[in-house]
Amino acid sequence: KVGGLADVVTGLAKACAERGHYTEVMLPYYTCIPEEVIEDKKFEHEFTVPKGYHWDGEMRLGNQITRVFSGRIAGVNVLLVQPDPETSNIFKCDRIYGGGYNEVEAYLYFSRACLEFLK
Staple 80 to which of 29, 49, 62, 103, CB 3.0 to 4.6 Å? Predict the structure, then answer.
């Protein structure tokens, strides 16, 4: 959990759950998230996410293999979105912000991955 947005998301999810609603929060599965904070982690689904990229000055299209895991973090149900670690550096980091990946690419990918998962 990092920053004010994380506090708001956690508080909102817990408040909704206290009122009887089932809540799940989709999060990027950063490699810096300690495994011990994820309770009841379970593989849910694997799918591909369409993704454009530049190669030798040319825009090309491809697909990113993506996995989703469910679990609980800090009492909140979460869905963790993970690009295939063998083919992507997205979300590989020592800390959440300022990691060793292109943040714009990461958030574009994450947004599309969430939409593809919800189809």
Answer: 29
